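agent> Task received from the user: take the single chain below, predict its 3D structure, and emit structure tokens. No templates, no multimer pairing.
agent> Plan: (1) validate residues, (2) run structure prediction, (3) serialize to tokens, (4) report one or two observations.
agent> Step 1 OK, no nonstandard residues flagged.
tool_call: predict_structure(input=
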Amino acid sequence: MLDEAVGLGAVTVLGVLEQAYFSLQVIYARRKYSVSPPATTGPPEFERVFRAQANCSEYFPIFITVLWTAGVFFSQGLSSVCGLLYLYGRLRYFHGYSQSAQGRLAPLYFSAQILWVLIGFSCLGVVLSFCRVYLNVDVLQELGSALGLV
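)
tool_result: status=success, residues=150
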């Protein structure tokens, strides 16, 4: 099982490192713009970095959950690739938002689409597994038979 989850584990560790990077950027922005904790307001340049990090952190638990669910129940390979694309999108989002509020939009839409794909893979994988385990129906095999593919 561990060999099968190495891609998911690698994407998870990379995601944690990305979150740490975002947090460090907030620390650097606090120093640069003289915004001492616990304050969360200051110059717009600081607030954009702060919000970019907060937004990325808010979505991280959802990402990790659907990454692993899709990887376990659907496809580890596809889920890992989607995970890498999502992390790339969030990195672009962070840097775009740090520069301007408008700069966050394209990467936000990209990463949201990838997240929805992972949600779809998760749902499909869980439903197919449920049918196979609890209803004793292999939906994919039945579908292949009906279409004359098997």
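agent> Step 4: summary for the user.
Helices lie at 6-33, 44-73, 76-99, 105-134, 139-146.
agent> Done.
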